[in-house]
Amino acid sequence: MNNVPTLNDFGHDPLWISIIKAVAIFVFLMLGVLFGVWTERKLISRMQHRYGPNRAGKFGLLQSVADGLKMGLKEDIMPRTVDKVIYFLAPVIIAVPAFLAFSVVPFGPMVWMFGHKTPLQLTDLPVAVLLVLATASIGVYGVVLAGWGSRSPYAILGGLRSSAQVVSYEIAMGLSFVAVFLQAGTLSTSEIVAKQASGGTWDIFGLSIPAPSWYVVSLIPSFLIYAITMLGETNRVPFDLPEGEGELVGGFHTEYSSSLKFAMFMLAEYVNVFTVSAMAITLFFGGWRAPWPISLWDGANSGWWPMLWFFIKLVIAFGFFVWVRASLPRVRYDQLMAFGWKVLIPLNLGWILLAATFKALRMPEADRAIILTIGAVVIIGAFAIWLRFDTVNQRRREAKAAAIEEEFEQLREEPTAGGFPVPPLDAPHYHGVVPAARLNSDAAKEVTSGSN
């Protein structure tokens, strides 16, 4: 189709059309933040049987505008001990990359704009998806520097959490794109969307099976892993540990009063939500292409209509973020790190190996015997490594259980150590390690009699 843009269609627009596109994207994101805040508060309130914003304007639509004006006009209180340069630069460093990442997101096909045929996309690169990952990594520096420049214990802890957390989930996020690159054969966002126009056929054991066009069907493990990691990328519940209000007051932005700098942090968070949602749509849900059965209409994927389909998909993706926030509690920090390193990354590596094997088997000149042999050797080797680590972990668990049992025996021999309501100062600290079920009736009686 001649209306599908390629890399050769970029870089030929007049400067004024590029400026119009950039301003349009900026306005779209700013209005998206205003309505996104209102939508999130309304949806969560309805889930909790509340009304939500309903005073400022019709249906409370002006509540986000009122909050923005308040933060823009409020007095900026700056602590004396902060590093002023880093303190001022941190909100900028976290906000600017959030807007830049949206420059490679395709909104639609080739259209006529003021007499010029141009793609509905600001720009594209042969490595456009890597640009998004790079800008996301730069945004983390804003969080780290905000905590460091604040010179506050809670803010520094939030920044350190973010720096350690990004290594855990961003590796898994990058690996979730690899299967898409293998399937599409390109890293360009516009060409990835073009590859999802038709899935073609799969030749499996001599049978030609129609392949799904959207990669969310054929690459469902990659999408599920990306859906988890994009919650950590945006510091949203249940992975909003750099903020952690219940533990770190406000985390990395504790020392930022509710002023314009604080508003930039909130702005960057919502723009990042739109960015990761747009990347999920582009890589896995056909981008701006119309879903079935709308796609049966010949004009569904031409003209300006694809912008509507893209917007509807973006609203649904944003609703997913709101639903997760209203449903799940914040996880523990060690649980997130263990989940990223021990679950997401190994699963991703295994899935990439499997996807690459199927990709190689579909090649007509491929030697299937050699490919299957190599795949079997790798799988057996991975299973042996996992079994080795599992055996080591089992020995550690047994050693820990033996140590707990030894401490429990000491408690039975010295019942005053479990005094009630306040144990003696020299009593051993158990921190809830010994389960209550392990206290049999005789031991419970001894502890009770000893405390009395």
UniProtKB/TrEMBL annotation:
It holds the Pfam family NADHdh. It catalyses: a quinone + NADH + 5 H(+)(in) = a quinol + NAD(+) + 4 H(+)(out). InterPro entries: NADH_UbQ_OxRdtase_su1/FPO, NADH_UbQ_OxRdtase_su1_CS. The keyword NADP does not apply. PROSITE patterns: COMPLEX1_ND1_1 (PS00667), COMPLEX1_ND1_2 (PS00668). Keywords: Cell membrane, Membrane, NAD, Quinone, Translocase, Transmembrane, Transmembrane helix, Ubiquinone. Signal peptide: none annotated. It is a multi-pass membrane protein. Coiled coil: none annotated. Its main location: membrane. The chain crosses the membrane at residues 15-38, 85-105, 125-146, 166-184, 204-228, 262-284, 304-324, 336-357, 369-387. It is found in: Cell membrane; Membrane. It is an enzyme of class 7 (translocase). It comes from the Bacteria. PANTHER family: NADH DEHYDROGENASE SUBUNIT 1 (PTHR11432), NADH-UBIQUINONE OXIDOREDUCTASE CHAIN 1 (PTHR11432:SF3). NDH-1 is composed of 14 different subunits. Subunits NuoA, H, J, K, L, M, N constitute the membrane sector of the complex. Belongs to the complex I subunit 1 family. NDH-1 shuttles electrons from NADH, via FMN and iron-sulfur (Fe-S) centers, to quinones in the respiratory chain. The immediate electron acceptor for the enzyme in this species is believed to be ubiquinone. Couples the redox reaction to proton translocation (for every two electrons transferred, four hydrogen ions are translocated across the cytoplasmic membrane), and thus conserves the redox energy in a proton gradient. This subunit may bind ubiquinone. NCBIfam families: PRK06076.1-2, PRK06076.1-4. This is NADH-quinone oxidoreductase subunit H. It comes from Microbispora siamensis.
